[in-house]
Write a structure and sequence with these properties.
17 helices; 42% helix; two-stranded antiparallel ribbon; single chain; 497 residues; 8 strands; SusD_RagB_dom; mainly alpha; TPR-like_helical_dom_sf; Serine Threonine Protein Phosphatase 5, Tetratricopeptide repeat; SusD-like_N
């Protein structure tokens, strides 16, 4: 287990409370909402503990935060994942009928990222006052900027216009900022991280370096090039950042796709950045665990049938080792060992195999607290960098170059597929890359965003199987962004405008 996992676990009950949105101190007693005392950082050890506290906010709420399956709630409009009628939070988004009272949406996509943002702001707005070396300050600020940028990047893609808060106050009356303002801040934060983080691999899994910050920046530029900003000049910037990552030689594809999901594979050389969790047995802290065990298992295996896979997407998925590692298609009874094909199961859908986080490798969780898994949330893999370059270079230059072909074909070869045919035009090549990315990252938090930015939401929802949930009414771009949670609008009515 990484050092960061142990550090985060040990400080959750202490330092981290300084950065929480909800604490023991009454806001009436502190109108400015300052959460960190001016005297807090006195040593580099204090600073590192506070920084680790920012990371801890990424993993501090397994019941609804970024480690819960609720992270998929606003992504259900894509074509890779679905749920069932008994899970209304998920179904709302899969049928394009979201509600502002959706609990899963607020927990994972609003509260959790803002918790990180406020903790990062606390550090950034206080660190320069402290008698600590400039090098230590700069490193801490770079990591805090990285985490703030990632949090805002998640939120702006889910909600669109949101309040942009950069100080360490709790101002519930801030108006929405424009998309351009938010993205400008994201780029500024990431560029600071790129300029000030080490060019070497990070010392702890879960912490960024210059190259992983460039990877996130490539994601940001690619998103900006598509809907809703449509700043097509950003394709060239996305391609350059992705190329810098590739040329660094720090990361590479694992030889076997299935190895990405092995019990001991967290922090493998394909992962540029992940949100770190640890299992109950290792950390002994429930708040540090993901919740993708029983939630992503079928009832035939005593699971909770919360998130599973769309049949239409499954049927289009190319056969081969990647598909075998992505899907669970035969369910094994816990008590009797009965084998049930997905077609004969309760909900008649295949399930994801990627997150089967049992104490026995490749087996599901069954006992005690084992359903509180410890698998990291692998947010950015090198395979995505290869595909970002392939798409962005093609869109920037009008046609794919040799490197673009090489990038996408490396991903395809590992999946057991033939190379793309030579001579594809810009549109055909780009469509092939988007398809490839969908298969490669099924259930990995990016399919919805790719469909939105490329204008393919309506098209891909036409390929649903008869057994999949269907959109209610017409899909239009007004439904691409989630509603801001109702409780937030009550606090700040301007958010409802």
């Amino acid at each position: 287990m990484s050092t960061l996992k142990y550090i985060v676990s040990s400080i959750l009950g202490g330092v981290i409370f300084l950065g929480l949105l909800g604490g023991c101190q009454s806001l009436d007693e502190n109108p400015a909402g300052t959460l960190v005392a001016d005297s807090y950082f006195s040593t580099e050890e204090d600073l590192d503990a506070a920084l680790t506290g920012v990371y801890a906010q990424l993993a501090s709420n397994r019941w609804g935060g970024l480690g819960h399956t609720n992270i998929w709630v606003p992504l259900m409009g894509a074509d890779d994942l679905t749920s069932q009628a008994g899970k209304p939070d998920y179904v709302q988004f899969d049928t394009f009928n979201p509600s502002s009272t959706n609990g899963g949406l607020k927990a994972a996509s609003w509260t959790a990222p803002y918790r990180v943002i406020f903790a990062a702001n606390n550090l950034l707005n206080n660190v320069d006052k402290m008698p600590i070396s400039e090098s230590a300050k700069t490193k801490a600020k770079a990591e805090a900027c990285f985490l703030r940028a990632w949090s805002y990047f998640w939120m702006v893609r889910v909600f669109g216009e949101i309040p942009l808060q950069l100080d360490n106050s709790m101002n519930y009356k801030l108006p929405k900022s424009s998309l351009k303002e938010i993205y400008t801040q994201i780029i500024e934060d990431l560029q600071y991280a790129v300029d000030n983080l080490s060019a070497d691999l990070p010392s702890s899994v879960g912490r960024p370096c210059k190259i992983s910050a460039k990877g996130i920046l490539a994601q940001v530029y690619l998103m900006m090039a598509g809907y809703p900003l449509n700043e097509t000049d950003k394709y060239a910037l996305a391609a350059q950042e992705a190329k810098d990552v590739i040329d660094s030689g720090l990361y590479y594809l694992l030889e076997n796709y299935a190895d990405l999901w092995k019990w001991n594979s967290d922090g493998n050389p394909e992962i540029l950045w992940a949100i770190i969790f640890c299992n109950f047995n290792d950390c002994g802290n429930q708040n540090m665990n993901t919740f993708t065990g029983l939630n992503t298992q079928p009832s035939e295996e005593n699971g909770w049938d919360q998130v599973f896979c769309e049949i239409g997407f499954f049927n289009r998925f190319p056969e081969g080792p990647r598909k075998d590692a992505t899907y669970l298609t035969v369910f094994t009874g816990r008590d009797d060992g009965k084998k049930t094909p997905w077609q004969e199961s309760t909900f008649k859908h295949p399930f994801l195999a990627k997150y089967r986080d049992g104490m026995v490798p490749n087996e599901p969780n069954y006992s005690g607290s084992d359903h509180m898994g410890g698998r990291d949330l692998n947010y950015l893999r090198f395979a995505e960098i290869l595909l970002i370059y392939a798409e962005a270079q093609t869109m920037a230059d009008g046609a794919p170059n040799a490197m673009a072909y090489d990038c996408v074909n490396k991903v395809r070869r590992r999946a057991g597929l033939e190379d793309l045919p030579a001579g594809l035009n810009q549109t055909a090549f780009r469509d092939a890359v988007i398809d490839e990315k969908g298969w490669e990252f099924c259930g990995e938090y990016c399919r919805w965003f790719d469909l939105v930015r490329t204008g393919k939401v309506e098209e891909m929802n036409q390929y649903k199987d008869a057994g999949d949930l269907k959109p209610q009414g017409t899909i239009d771009k007004s439904k691409y962004f989630a509603p801001i949670p109702y409780t937030e609008v009550l606090l700040n009515p301007s958010l409802g405008d």
